[in-house]
Amino acid sequence: xxxxxxxxxxxxxxxxxxxxxxxxxxxxxxxxxxxxxxxxxxxxxxxxxxxxxxxxxxxxxxxxxxxxxxxxxxxxxxxxxxxxxxxxxxxxxxxxxxxxxxxxxxxxxxxxxxxxxxxxxxxxxxxxxxxxxxxxxxxxxxxxxxxxxxxxxxxxxxxxxxxxxxxxxxxxxxxxxxxxxxxxxxxxxxxxxxxxxxxxxxxxxxxxxxxxxxxxxxxxxxxxxxxxxxxxxxxxxxxxxxxxxxxxxxxxxxxxxxxxxxxxxxxxxxxxxxxxxxxxxxxxxxxxxxxxxxxxxxxxxxxxxxxxxxxxxxxxxxxxxxxxxxxxxxxxxxxxxxxxxxxxxxxxxxxxxxxxxxxxxxxxxxxxxxxxxxxxxxxxxxxxxxxxxxxxxxxxxxxxxxxxxxxxxxxxxxxxxxxx
Length: 420
What we know:
The chain has 13 helices and 14 strands. It is α+β, with helices and mostly antiparallel strands and 420 residues long. Strand 7 and strand 8 form a beta hairpin. Helix 4 packs parallel to helix 5 (112-125) and helix 11 (302-318) packs antiparallel against helix 12 (328-338). The chain is globular and about 60 Å long.
């Protein structure tokens, strides 16, 4: 959520998560002061007050969806994980939150306990309550439908949040990728389906979900168990694979793609899944690849968060807190453009020491040798390398117009057609 807010004026101050892997990932991406805490801890409100001081901050929270979903047995308030929502509400109240953004599965919109809690909080704080349900596949080639709530001071005048329109420019994965990438050989090996995994995913008794993902498809929803359903969860929330009884009754969720390297089924590489979730291409992770995938399964899509955030900023503008007027659709379009809309992005991790290029430069041939582990080609003339790498590089980054580049993988050679 902090990525979307940071894109348009926000600055994460404090991030709290009970999970160690999530905190490692947040710290890696410098999301403010990261605390590994249980929201139910009685000492947390005082700690937050010390960290925030007199600053009035907007609170953003995604709360556990398991109490509201069939995969979590639909126990509602009987599920102990439901207490996280109430703890978040308490902390937002005690910290005198300036505004509050909430995210969960669509069933949150009709849950009477959650809605009663939200409206009671709003009444005490003199806030307006707005909510909407956003389907990511209306704007991006991935299915991820989420309920969003926005609570703002009444004098901001935010009365509603419209759902976003359906765009026609991003109707399949090939709008983002011209093919699946070839990645670090050890990482790809870890993502290959085992014989057991392939047998389960091929068995129709475990559901009729689409298993093989093609570039002409829209990606299905990814869950926290993606790539880890048949093993223990890397985050520690589950010590073994899902039981056959559970898989037969609730289904086995997940899909795979064809490895360009080995022509065998593999799970998505973290960068591929991150971009499908509208995270920047610069996303990387210090965690093992399957652990990273489990964390990405919990992500609130930044594009959806940005839609909510811009409506919050509209209210701040009306209240005189911002000078510039905000047009949410324009901001969304800009974010999509910077996230590779109408661009083909392809990464090859080449297991070689260097690549030599010959290309003309002012009527003479120029010879250049790059010591690289990977080359990234972007048809993005208005962007600098740091826009895509977040200020860090993996090897050397070379930017070229993709239409002028022909890659002959069989011989690992580059044939320049028309250099600029």
